[in-house]
């Protein structure tokens, strides 16, 4: 199947400053892709190129086979109608009611007035705001405003939904409900979604694939599990992952040594598990097979996408720790020895 | 107060209202497109033409720089060309409007500039044409500010129309000068001031409530 969105060698700069450098990736129909990067990484510029507001200086952007970079402005106006955009600050018209805001893309697309009302009711039902037609944006909470923003973005049946920091201005509870709504929309409508954010926590929830942007370059393309498994030596990834990974408890950092001490000691390890290995009875295995006492210090098992994924810090104690470690190395996606602490602590 | 004086005041009030309403209406009808032109051709506008924007700004400022009493006299040939005469209430509408258009244009420009650029981007990204953006975003979102601008223009026109007596336009200002000042008729002077205060207060109250109602 042809990709719905195909970015080929996109380069864009503002004067001396190169905002995007040779970016290439493609997105399949129905895929949820998270585009992550720190501020200044080029996310906003890429977004503006993707929704045809900015024309990249080099490279091609193909949406459903149509090259956005070569279309005249008049055509771009039509193409933009097929891209839904959800904004960080909602960008709802304060002069219009909820229904009026959702109606705007329909009016732009020239949808007959009679069909508009039905479509608006249907969309409000989808985003969980039934009966809010006559309210004004000033009467809504942040989460509700974003729901209206999503309904508006979906109104004209877009082929692609772009979310620009859609949850960054929301409290954690609203963030959760908006992310669930987006996941729901992806499942129900099979809509392709590109999430642009600086928060790993947001893409972790439901992005099937994560693209990492750093200093205008696409530095990583993979799943969260790939990153947890192979990202040890990647500084950009580590800073982004730091928010969501368990970190060593502070009471241990002082006594942690790189080499095993004389006498009784514990080995502190970081373990990344996925799928079957994440649901296996790990602790009883260690105890039964190797007589090793394992204690969970930080982290645990969560769901990433549709799979179980474990990311945890353990302390192991016992005479056969070495064997236990080589067993874990085989069974786990990634095993890293963080250090050793004296046994009494 | 004698019925004669009352009749005089009523007649002058009607003349003032005629001048104020007509010139404000013309100022809005012609000043709003002017403001949109300055915003749209400006550096962040929809049709970037910085030179045109700067030129228009200069013309607007030039008209605003001339004191109204001088403009009134200066424009006599123009007034005669447009209104057919340079005297009377209807004729005064011409210089009042010419002063009012750039005045309202500047106020409207400020109101339009206040509109969040994110909204313009949002509608542009939706595939809205520039006309849609001007109508549904710029004007619609700036409407409370524009209404406040209309109120300010109305009240400024009340003040300016007092000077129109110079070209025989009548009105409350003219009445106050001729009867109240030149004939020492304090009753007329007092009556005119009271009517003006009531007129301006009413305009302000109505303008404010309309703007508040539009502000959702």
Automatic annotation (TrEMBL), chain A:
Highest taxon in the source lineage: Bacteria
SMART domains found in the cross-reference section: AAA, NIL
Record key words, sorted: Amino-acid transport, ATP-binding, Cell membrane, Membrane, Nucleotide-binding, Translocase, Transport
Gene3D superfamilies noted in UniProt: 3.30.70.260, P-loop containing nucleotide triphosphate hydrolases
PROSITE patterns assigned: ABC_TRANSPORTER_1, ABC_TRANSPORTER_2
Coiled-coil regions listed: none
Keyword Translocase attached: yes
CDD domains, per database record: ABC_MetN_methionine_transporter
Domain ABC transporter residue range list: 5-240
Cited Pfam families: ABC_tran, NIL
The protein's name: Methionine ABC transporter ATP-binding protein
Source species: Bombella favorum
UniProtKB/TrEMBL annotation, chain B:
Top-level division of the source organism's lineage: Bacteria
GO cellular component: plasma membrane
Entry's transmembrane regions: 20-39, 51-76, 138-167, 187-206
InterPro entries named in the record: AA_ABC_Transporter_Permease, MetI-like, MetI-like_sf
Protein's membrane topology: Multi-pass membrane protein
ABC transmembrane type-1 domain residues: 13-207
Keywords for the protein's UniProt record, in alphabetical order: Cell membrane, Membrane, Transmembrane, Transmembrane helix, Transport
Family classification: Belongs to the binding-protein-dependent transport system permease family. CysTW subfamily.
Protein name: ABC transporter permease
Organism of provenance: Bombella intestini
